[in-house]
Write a structure and sequence with these properties.
about 90 residues; mainly alpha; elongated
Length: about 90
């Protein structure tokens, strides 16, 4: 029987996953679904969000404040801004 040893993914793939989580959180804050927005809001107030930002070398408080400001916009504007932020994140190197 040929059994391959288990290997953890490289750190680079973890970073991609962290970036995807951040982008989805931003998009969820702009969701039409209230439940989705509430869950995203809970996440950005959690210690998990702060650890995620730390892994990406981002200032969690600044990001949280920016996302809180995003929530002040009307839904249509919020959706457009959240997509713009996601595109910006794609261009950045973490």
């Amino acid at each position: 029987m040929n059994v391959k040893p288990f290997r953890l993914p490289e750190k680079k793939s973890y970073k991609k996953m962290d970036i995807a989580i951040l982008k989805q959180t931003i998009r969820d804050l702009a969701s039409k679904e209230m439940k989705t927005r509430i869950e995203a809001k809970k996440f950005i107030q959690s210690s998990s969000f702060y650890r995620l930002c730390d892994r990406l070398n981002l200032n969690a408080s600044d990001i949280k404040n920016s996302l809180d400001t995003l929530m002040d916009y009307p839904l249509i504007s919020r959706k457009a801004l959240s997509e713009e932020i996601a595109r910006f994140i794609d261009k950045e190197e973490f």
